[in-house]
Amino acid sequence: YKHFGQFAPLGGEQAAAELPGDWVSIGHSTQWLWYGIFTVIALFYMQQASELAHTLFGRV
Predict the structure, then answer these.
(1) What HEC string does the chain produce?
(2) For residues 33 and 17, what is the distance between their CA atoms, to the nearest angstrom?
(3) What is the rounded radius of gyration, in angstroms, for the C-alpha atoms of the chain?
(4) Does the predicted model carry a pTM greater than 0.90?
């Protein structure tokens, strides 16, 4: 297990992040960083689901 940090939404378009190396960030830029990371993760899982559907059911 490798801990890569934590994100917490604060509301009002703000978030807080605690990342390795005792790096802490709070504010709007952190919220946009969270949006970016969330988007990349969501796209990764969508691709995985698409590949699984293709494997199970043929071309979807």
Answers:
(1) CCCCCEEEEEECCEEEEEECCCEEEEEHHHHHHHHHHHHHHHHHHHHHHHHHHHHHHCCC
(2) 9
(3) 16
(4) no
Answer whether 25's CB lies under 8 Å from 16's CB.
yes
Q: pLDDT tens digits, residue range 1-13?
A: 778 889 888 888 8
Instruction: Please give the C-alpha separations between residue 21 and each of 1, 14, 36, 43, 54, in angstroms, as whole numbers.
Output: 17, 22, 21, 28, 41
19 Cβ neighbours under 8 A, 6+ residues apart: 4, 5, 25
Of 39, 47, 6, nearest to 24 by C-alpha is 6
